[in-house]
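Example (one chain per record):
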Amino acid sequence: QRPVYGGFFWINGDGRYPVPKEAYYMAGAGGQTTMIIPSHDLVVVRLGHYKGSTPGEADLKKALALLLEAVPRGR
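Predicted structure:
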């Protein structure tokens, strides 16, 4: 069983996104996403209006990778 969902949040336990596995997120219609990354004291919100989430997911992954390079780990 893959660690991908718990407590009404999706979790990055399978490394789907280029963020630490501790990250968790809410995924809504049209690719809207709210991702919490505790180790970086970071909350990322993506608003979108795609039909389905696939078209924007590659861009979200690129943006997350760049963001984590720019924002150092917290504590």
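Caption: The beta strands are 5-6, 9-11, 24-27, 33-37, 42-46.
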